[in-house]
Amino acid sequence: MTSYFEGIAPVRFEGPETGRELAYRHYDPDETVMGRRMEDHLRFSVAWWHSFAWPGGDPFGGQTFQRPWFKDDMGAAKLKADAAFDLFAILGQPFFCFHDVDIRPEGESFADCERNLFEVVDYIGQKMEAGGPRLLWGTANLFSHRRFMAGAASNPDPEVFAWSAATVKSCMDATHRLGGENYVLWGGREGYETLLNTDLGREAEQMGAFLSKVVDYKHKIGFEGQILLEPKPQEPTKHQYDYDVATVYGFLQRFGLENEVKLNLEQGHAILAGHSFEHELALAGSLGLLGSIDMNRNDYQSGWDTDQFPDNPREVALAYYEVLRAGGFTRGGTNFDAKLRRQSLDPVDLVAAHVGAMDICARGFKAAARMYEDGVLEELRADRYAGWDAEAARTMLSTQALDEIHAAVLADDTRPEPRSGRQEILENLVSRYV
């Protein structure tokens, strides 16, 4: 164990009445909910990047964190891994996630970067074999380095496309070697700043070809995990091609990939797209695309993706309700793509942030499970659409032509009257569970 988290004991479930700061009040991994252990429902994951690689900057200020591993060499990379697995042991969560650049030092060439990656992957693998958590997903950082300033798959220069494809291949290999459950593609800069220098059609074709190659390689190496895309609106570019669930679904259909790729959805991105998180989850669930989630929140008074740890049980409950409606997680899980505030400097802050987030998620999930098991919302939803269960309504929708519908309305001559949507009653109902 490193000295970074020295003196911080493993966090245990103590119940809602405990007075200790570093204790789980609602998250009991062994509690049975809807026939499964809570740990197996929620499948918590710690994000390597925000927790161990982020220096504490924001759009108006630089580094505030001082971590002993903030150096770009192999010794620091292994020290970072040591500290990460110390935190994992304290929290007891079952998974973690990483980008390639989070875990390895930069090299002088692509070969150097790849060699560094697999040296650290082997080091992490040893720690996993010794009892550490599993890998929920791996991914490639194709957005931070200046070479990606105009995107990766959508880049106007074929050399950058090639570097990006090679990087993804290496990261898929690393994820496969560590037994990862998923591989995520996050298009951080797959968009444009101005149409004056952008060929939209060409860039979309490049992205479709890139993703098709990723899917082909998955099958070539026998990777059994999910390939996940993560919708991302606007920030940092003026427009992102992978704006939201609906946009990505259209893209997948265009290139015949809707049965090969699912989605990793983030609360903060949903808000930036002008949606609620539950909207994006519900739409993905209805399309059979829900794969995994990044659980965080934005500051609603800020205009960028602030990636804060969740603290609102109602928002979390509504999100998990849609996860349950979609059948729950299989290979996916709940990753905390969340970071400390830049004034939260101490090791205990990082522990406390995760403890609070896991508790909020557990509290919201249990409320969602009660709502789902009671079935009241689903009964009211079904009642609202009950008219469509009648044979005449089904026939109208499936086989009747427009003029036939017109003739039927003329013959019946009954004026339809609207029925209440009962929104306030439904909102009050949710409040009783949360």
Question: Could you please describe the fold and organization of this structure?
Answer:
Mg(2+) 1 binds at residues 230, 266, 294, 337. Homotetramer. The active site is at residues 99, 102. The chain is an alpha/beta fold and 434 residues long. The protein folds into 2 domains: 32-374, Alpha-Beta Barrel (TIM Barrel); 388-433, no CATH class. 46% of the residues lie in helices and 11% in strands. It has 16 helices and 12 strands. Strands 3-4-5-6-8-10-11-12 form an 8-stranded parallel β-barrel, surrounded by 5 helices. A two-stranded antiparallel sheet has the order 1-2. A two-stranded antiparallel ribbon has the order 7-9. Helix 5 (110-129) packs parallel to helix 6 (158-177) and helix 6 (158-177) packs parallel to helix 7 (200-221). The protein is globular, with a radius of gyration of 24 Å.
Number of domains: 2
Uncertain runs are none
pLDDT averaged residue by residue = 96
Count of separate DSSP helical elements: 16
Write down the CATH topology of the largest domain.
Answer: TIM Barrel
Tell me which CATH architecture of the largest domain applies here. Answer: Alpha-Beta Barrel
- Supply the helix-strand structural class: alpha/beta
Name given to the CATH homologous superfamily of the largest domain: Divalent-metal-dependent TIM barrel enzymes
Strand order of the largest sheet: 3-4-5-6-8-10-11-12
Main location: cytoplasm
InterPro entries: Xyl_isomerase-like_sf, Xylose_isom_bac, Xylose_isomerase
Protein name: Xylose isomerase
Subunit structure: Homotetramer.
